[in-house]
Amino acid sequence: MKKFIAIILAVSVLSGAGTIYAKVSPSIGLSNWFSNSFMEKSVEIGESTSEAIFTKVREFQVYVSTVKQVAKKRVEDFTNLHRQSVLSKLSNWKEQQLSEVEKTSEQLKKRDFSTYTESLKLEETMDQEMESLLQEIVESE
Fold first, then answer.
1. What is the rounded (10 degree) CA torsion for 38, 40, 43, 47?
2. What is the DSSP letter of 1?
C-alpha cells in the first residue's frame, strides 16, 4: 500500500508539474514567437517603406529637375524672342528719329538760309537807300 500511495503521490506531483509547465510554457513560447515575428515583420516593413520613400523622393527630384530645365528653356526662348522684337522696334524707332532729325535739320537750314538771304537783301536795300539819301543831301548842299 505504501507503494500504491507513493505511486499515486508521484503521479499526482508529476501531473501537477506537467500541468503547471503546460500552462506557463505556451504563453512564454507564444509571447517569444510573437515578439520575434513582430520584430522581423517590423524590420521588413520598415525597410520596404524606406526603400519606397527613397525611390519616390528620387523620382520627385528627377521630376523637379526636369521641370526646372523645361522652365529655364522656356524663359530663355521667351526672352530671346522678345529681345529680338524689342531690338528690332528700337532700331526702327531710332531710324525714324534720325530721319525726322535730318528732315528738321534740312528745313531749318532752308529756313535759316532764306532768312539769311532776306536779311542780306534788306541790308543791301538799306545801304542803297542810305547812299541815295546821302547823295541827295550832298547834292542839295
1. -130
2. -
The per-residue pLDDT string of the chain (141 residues; one tens digit each, 9 = 90 and over) reads 777 777 776 667 666 655 555 555 566 666 777 788 888 888 888 888 999 999 999 999 999 999 999 999 999 999 888 888 888 888 999 999 989 988 888 877 777 777 878 888 888 998 888 888 888 877 776
Q: From residue 105, how far is each of 54, 65, 102 by CA, in Å?
A: 74, 58, 5
Coil, strand, or helix at residue 141? coil
Q: Which cell numbers hold the place of 123?
A: 541790308
**CB within 8 A of 52, min separation 6: which ones?**
none
Burial class (CB in 10 A: 0-12, 13-18, 19+), 94: exposed
C-alpha cell recorded at residue 78: 521667351
H/E element, 47: helix 2-140
